[in-house]
Specification:
The structure holds 2 protein chains of 2 kinds. Helices cover about 60% and strands about 0% of the residues of chain A. By secondary structure, chain A is mostly helical. Chain B folds into 2 domains: about 1-125, Glutathione S-transferase Yfyf (Class Pi), Chain A, domain 2 (Up-down Bundle); about 145-305, Rossmann fold (3-Layer(aba) Sandwich), CATH 3.40.50. Helix content of chain B is about 45%, strand content about 10%. Chain B has helices spanning about 15-30, 55-70, 80-95, 100-110, 125-135, 135-140, 175-185, 205, 210-225, 235-245, 245-250, 265-270, 290-305, and strands at about 1-5, 30-35, 75-80, 125, 150-155, 190, 230, 260. In chain B, the strands form 2 sheets. Chain B has a 4-stranded parallel sheet, sandwiched between helices. Chain B has a 4-stranded parallel sheet with strand order 6-5-7-8, with helices on both faces. The two termini of chain B are about 30 Å apart. Classes of the chains: A mainly alpha, B alpha/beta. At the A-B interface, helix 5, helix 6, helix 7, helix 8 and helix 9 of A face helix 2, helix 3, helix 4, helix 8 and helix 9 of B.
Chain lengths: ~200, ~325
């Protein structure tokens, strides 16, 4: 894939600086600088009505250097990772990956709009790092007790149903080489910080 | 027997247990074997990539490194869960595309004595393997109890047809892969335009209103199209639509009771395996009765279909009507 370079991090313009920062944080080749503001992304998005900015507007805000507004937006947190926008984008922008990058940045700077999403992610990954596997029971029990007490009356029979159908275990599954996995992840953390 | 490396993923051992049970059941009739890679770890779902990039990809790549070491020939690594499949495929793809990411990930893997060269392992999804490697002829030949008359809505979800890093899909929005497979089992596949819409993923956990509305759309459309059950390829879609249907009904004051099963479960049943052995009955909205009813009626329906009465031809589209997308003849399963 040919990647066009239209902005460089040296540029003094805050918009270009922020754009370069987001591009560097994106896992894939974002092509975010290629956005033509057509709005196919927002039009394709099943959760656009829950977002405070559509993806198109968010990308315009990035270019305008509105760092604070972008990182406080709930848009990346409402992204479902359904990739509708990605396959429809005429400029092949990796919108989902850009949303992930914005979430990473918001988490680093604690600017997320509310802590339900970050908390869920944090606990999920904390457990996956520790056990090597996700732990459905521990994760959901903790999450509902912390954030959704009103949903508990309905959720309790659901959890019991999962037990009855043999679909959830109380104790987590664990991998044998937990130490190896943790060593890999510690080194990865160092490398990520050094970026 | 063709052998494949197999990455189950965490859900297959918990909430998606019936997927695993049915997958084990259909291997023999299809002439394939799956060899689970040793001591695999969680792929991080869509969570780790939202938290930190290098560790997220290192966590995925550990599985790829294990698979590469266990590989004997050219066998691919098969995942059944959509999110696991996409994570593994995407990590391989991005590492090949970006030397900087590759270097960081391999540096991290080195701390655990592992290494992975991108491109060594080919990551594939179960559905695509069954369609392209096994083939529909073999599937049809294995059918002992055709599901004639069972009206199903094929629900593929997002992450299998999109973003499609390997270019396995020509159509990202209305692919007919699952339709063709289910039709080979004898089932009646309803036209289900929401087949690749999103089930909400983790939204049922972090923003219930958003997640439940997406589930409502999917279930309501399946019901409107007169499907008696939905069929999925992903454990996340299954649990969202199955387990949260009650909460969704309460929120929108609706009364849907739409069972949702894995496509491998229907394959198992059509291959003559007892429904319970392929995990039917583990759902919230129990599919057993619907399935039993269909199986009972199926032989008569099949006889009637094979009888002298000519099958009514599809009416020609009105010339004055707006052009509608239609399946090409080559795609229609005879």
């Amino acid at each position: 894939m040919v990647v066009a370079q239209v902005s460089s991090p040296e540029v003094a313009d805050p918009g270009a600086r922020f754009l370069a920062e987001v591009r560097a944080k994106t896992a894939g080749v974002s092509r975010l600088e290629m956005c033509i503001q057509c709005g196919s992304c927002g039009g394709s998005c099943p959760s656009a009505d829950a977002m405070d900015h559509t993806p198109r507007r968010l990308f315009a805000l990035i270019r305008a250097g509105k760092r604070d507004e972008v990182l406080r937006s709930n848009t990346p947190w409402m992204c479902l990772s359904c990739y509708h926008c990605v396959v429809r984008c005429p400029q092949d922008i990796l919108i989902t990956d850009v949303m992930y990058a914005l979430k990473v940045m918001a988490e680093e700077e604690h600017t997320y709009p509310n802590n339900v999403g970050p908390d869920f992610t944090g606990v999920f990954i904390g457990q996956a790092r520790h056990f090597g596997r996700s732990w459905e029971m521990g994760l959901t029990a903790r999450h509902y007790l912390r954030h959704f007490i009103p949903r508990l009356p309905r959720m309790t029979p659901m959890a019991l149903g999962l037990f009855r159908h043999g679909r959830i275990g109380i104790l987590p599954h664990q991998i044998h080489q937990k130490k190896q996995l943790q060593a890999i992840l510690r080194r990865a953390d160092e490398l990520e910080r050094a970026r | 027997m063709t052998n494949y490396l197999y990455y189950p993923g965490c859900s297959m051992e918990g909430s998606g247990r019936s997927y695993r049970e049915s997958l084990e059941g259909i291997c023999e009739p299809l002439g394939i074997t799956f060899e689970e890679i040793d001591d695999w770890n969680c792929c991080g779902a869509t969570e780790y990539v939202s938290l930190s990039t290098t560790p997220a990809y290192a966590m995925i790549a550990r599985n790829l490194a294990i698979a590469a070491a266990e590989k004997k020939g050219t066998e691919p690594l098969v995942a059944a869960c959509s999110a696991c499949y996409l994570n593994l495929a995407k990590a391989d793809h991005y590492m090949a595309q970006q030397p900087a990411l590759n270097a960081r990930v391999n540096d991290a893997l080195g701390a655990g004595g592992l290494h992975y060269d991108p491109g060594t392992v080919k990551v594939r999804h179960l559905l695509e393997v069954i369609l392209n490697d096994v083939g529909l002829d073999k599937v049809k030949a294995a059918v002992k109890k055709p599901l004639t008359g069972l009206k199903v809505a094929p629900y593929l979800g997002c992450m299998v047809p999109r973003p499609d890093v390997d270019g396995a899909y020509t159509n990202h929005e209305q692919p007919n892969d699952l339709d063709r497979l289910l039709r080979a089992l004898g089932a009646e596949v309803v036209d289900y335009p929401l087949k690749t819409e999103c089930c909400g993923g983790h939204m049922t956990q972090i923003a219930p209103r958003v997640g439940l509305e997406l589930i409502r759309r999917l279930v309501a459309e399946a019901e409107r199209r007169e499907a008696v059950m939905m069929v999925t390829v992903c454990p996340m879609c299954q649990i969202n639509i199955d387990a949260y249907q009650g909460e969704m009904n309460a929120m929108f004051h609706t009364h849907y009771k739409m069972p949702i099963v894995f496509f491998t479960q229907l394959m198992g049943v059509a291959f003559g395996i007892e429904p319970k052995k392929v995990g039917v009955g583990r759902e919230y909205t129990n599919a057993s009765k619907t399935l039993a009813k269909a199986l009972k009626a199926a032989p008569e329906l099949a006889l009637a279909a094979a009888g002298a009465a000519p099958v009514a031809r599809r009416p020609r589209p009105d010339k004055r009507a707006l052009p509608m997308p239609r399946m090409a003849d080559s795609e229609v399963e005879k």
